[in-house]
Specification:
Length: 298
Amino acid sequence: MKRYIKKAVQVFILGLLVFNLSGCSDDDILLSVSPGEDTSNGESLRLISYNILEGMKLDKTNNYDNFVEWLKSYDPDIVALQEANGFTQESLEKLAARYNHPYVITNVKVGDNYPVALTSKYPLEKRRRVTKHVSHGCIFASIKGVNLVVTHLWPQGYWHQDGDGLGTEYRLHEMGIFLDSTINKFPMEPKWLLMGDFNAMSRIDMDGMDNPQGRDYRVHDMIMDAGFSDAVRHLHNYFHRTTPTVYGGWTAGRKGTRIDFIYGTDAMLRDVTKAGVIYDDFTDNFSDHYPVMVEFRY
């Protein structure tokens, strides 16, 4: 754990120095791939992880046309969704077919209205749903030799009863189950990407927080202790907010928070060529979270 605290402090200091020297604005420091930009050369995959706000409810009356056109403009090979509310396996397959993803898995379960999902241009291998003893669960699948885990951790600051203050403890409980069901279960597999809405902040983002000493970082500490590193911070020494969006109430001058992440193991990060948060007119206005994107060689 000490090495992660030391790393976070180094990133905090470096981030302040770079920010002060450059005078960057929020839009300047956040990487965004241009729609239609082809960076793959047939050797890379583009992945987008996105909390789509209760099943992309803001585009539902429009038959999700804006969402589909936005995805087609970025042309991701893999899409990891959180809050795929209202979708069944069949209805999500129909939606994904509109942006040319024939392979789909979701983890709809009784008693939870916030499933996660994974869609892809390529076949999904080692498909597994983890739904017991957790809130929104996770999906584990492999594509072209890369192991993917998409999750959405418990969102509230309480656990069983309002006000008991055990929200972080429950998220730690969930993350322990997810890690034991994936990377800890297959220790000989080197390439992993872990992504989603973690509803928790990381100590590596201290340079972007108003009260960095008053946060609880244990969820992300657990993830890093398991062998993962933050893909965005791997390439960029800046704070990247993922909430709130313009729709979610962001105004100029607010720092916001980052609770949406894509993590990779060391073997995986060596193949990551791009990583960042996507800001554009669509993502400003159709969810309360911004999507995170990575590109990687396979």
